[in-house]
Amino acid sequence: MIEHMSVPTSIPELIATSCALGAADTGTLSPGERALVRKHAAAFPKTADLEWIASRIRSGHDPLGDAYCAIRTPAQRRPLGQTYTPQAIVRAMVAWADDRGAPVRVVDPGAGSGRYLLAAAQQFPEASLHGSDIDPLATLMLRAGVAVLGLADRTTVHLGDYRDLALGHVDGPTLFLGNPPYVRHHQIAPERKAWLLDTARRRGLKASGLAGLHVHFFLATAEHGRPGDYGAFITSAEWLDVNYGGLVRQLLLDGLGGESLHVLDATVAPFADATTTGAITCFTLGSKPESITVRRVADVSDLGRLDRGRAVSRERLAETHRWSVLTRVTPKLPSGYIELGELCRVHRGAVTGANKIWVHSDGGVDLPERVLFASVTKARELFGAGERLSSTRSLRRVIDLPVDLDVFDAAERKQVERFLRAAKKTEGPGGLHRLHQEGLVECRAARRRARPGHLHGTPTPRIRPQRRPGTAHQHRARALSAAGSRRHDARQSRGVLALRGLPGAGAGLCGRAHQVRAEGDGAPAHPESGDLEQRRFRCRRFRRRGGLRSAQRGRRRSGSSLPGQPDAGAP
Q1: 3-state DSSP call for residue 234?
Q2: Residues 6+ away with beta carbon under 8 Å from 516
């Protein structure tokens, strides 16, 4: 809370006040800081105001930071990602660090006016202090606080990018503490994005150029630190779930050493000038944790010393792409029970539409026992088991074949090949061509064997996967429409191409493993299906010569039609 009578109300006043408190005499000023001092130091504040501000700093408050937030709007501070942390959160994070012992050095990667660094200085009186920031006004405010508290002899202020920070060797652990700036990837320079990708690749990790600046700071901390160092950052919680946050999740499981995760509920609004969900991440560098403690906090007062939560196993964290779900409160389990996820991975398997091939009752298929897995395939199988599923005899068997069939001996190989021959003859939905390890089907070989326009005796146009939305596939669909065929509807979602509107056939192609199914009663897809493939071939050949688009422009100018197509007015 700012007292109206004593705080600066403009940037020149704020700079002059910082200098009057001793900022200009604390350490060696950078050229950027000296330029601000020369320009604004003449506006000397009142002595009474200085005494009041100094007393607020000594009592653990941040009057200069509060004044800065009042002078510059959130929109003005957004390009630098400047969001100042409430003192209650700062105290909780410093308390967590205190429970882990006394560090030799404290580093704040985005120091601002020094809220974290000055609080840590009071808690750890023997530690050296390093504050980094790219805003010269912020570092001047930090120097002012350092001067008031008499910390100049053990404080180093860095005006520059945290990623470029050069930290020397110290005999003992370093504490990394703070609120990294929140800047979206749109405002991050290409060379900095390249740094992220290259640094992550060098560590054997995957990174995304869409990552915000706080992700960069997590990686930079892993680079600056060494085993035994520890830290706590508060950031936006979105990295828990988004794809680019995968780098942070990987780091916490390997290298950065995640210890605990405290997600502030969305209703808490920890930052007065930013609508975001905050997450406090505590870590110990060099460790590969067996579990990470997670919890969701309903109020800042509930943070305590960041020592509460429930442990989530490393395996569960590694297989979960959305960590926020792990912070939600689940009902307390009865005595003697454990969650299914603690025993095995729970997920939805491959969907083939061919259960009559892949799922059989016990003894219903002649295959080696080692490829038959007793599985719960219907909810009623659990309900019918009563309180405890004590036997697998009533469960059906799911077939799981390896990629390499050479692992079988001669007798087993005969069983498998007999099963494959029977599976290949299966008609209708789920008709199979080549089995895949995950229970899907690869149709490349079948397409090579099938005659043009036919799959297993069912007339259907030859299907080619769409390479890029809005290109060849859509042009080809327009050409077919002009020829009088039915509307060809193409849809691509997550790499899956679905073709609809062709009676008698349907197909789905998904990544490396394909499934082809023939539907309907075998009626031709179009009265002129005999000429359909020829028209497709002509369209493809004509497209190679210069593209359908240029051909259509020429057709409009000349009034002619594409090869193999009637005029637009033809029935």
Answers
A1: strand
A2: 431, 433, 441, 443, 446, 455, 507, 508
Q: Which two tokens stand for residue 311?
A: 């442990």
Write out the residue limits of the CATH 3.40.50.150 domain(s) in the chain. Answer: 84-327
User: Residues of the chain with pLDDT > 90: what percent?
Assistant: 49
**What average pLDDT score do residues 216-233 get?**
97
Higher pLDDT, 523 or 29: 29
* Rounded Cα–Cα distance for residues 219 and 324 (Å): 21
- Inform me whether the pLDDT recorded for 215 exceeds 50: yes
**Which carries the bigger pLDDT value, residue 334 or residue 240?**
240
Spatial separation of the C-alpha atoms in residues 82 and 63, rounded to whole Å: 16
For residues 548 and 475, is the Cβ–Cβ distance under 8 A? yes
Tokens of 286: 């060099």
Better-scored residue on pLDDT, 540 or 511: 540
Structure tokens at 491: 């849809």
Q: What is the mean pLDDT of residues 48-68?
A: 92
Q: Look at the block and give the residue holding tokens 């006394």.
A: 102
- Arithmetic mean of pLDDT, 435-439: 39
Instruction: Read off the amino acid at residue 229.
Output: D
Alpha helices in 160-227 (DSSP H): 190-202, 213-224
8 Å CB contact between 284 and 96: no
Segment among 97-106, 200-209, 486-495 with least mean pLDDT: 486-495
CA dist 462 → 141, 502, 518, 532 (Å): 70, 12, 13, 10
Please name which of 255, 254, 11, 229 lies closest in space to residue 140, comparing C-alpha atoms: 11
User: How many C-beta atoms lie closer than 10 Å to residue 378's C-beta?
Assistant: 12
Whether the full predicted model's pTM is greater than 0.85, yes or no, is no
Q: Cβ–Cβ contacts within 10 Å for residue 333, how many?
A: 9
Secondary structure (3-state) at 335: coil
Distance of alpha carbon 455 from alpha carbon 465, whole angstroms: 16
What DSSP letter does each residue of 395-420 carry, written as one string? Answer: SEEEE---S-GGGS-HHHHHHHHHHH
What are the structure tokens assigned to 520, written together? Answer: 């309907």
3-state secondary structure of 138: helix
Structure tokens at 472: 């060849």
**392-425 core/surface letters (b: 16 or more CB in 10 A; e: else):** eeebbbbbebeeeeeebeeebeeebeebeeebee
- CATH number (3.40.50.280, 3.40.50.150, 3.40.190.10, 3.40.190.120) of 84-327 reads 3.40.50.150
316-362: pLDDT as tens digits: 999 998 899 888 876 778 888 877 777 776 666 666 677 888 898 88
Between strands 278-284 and 230-236, the pairing is antiparallel
**182 SS3 class:** coil
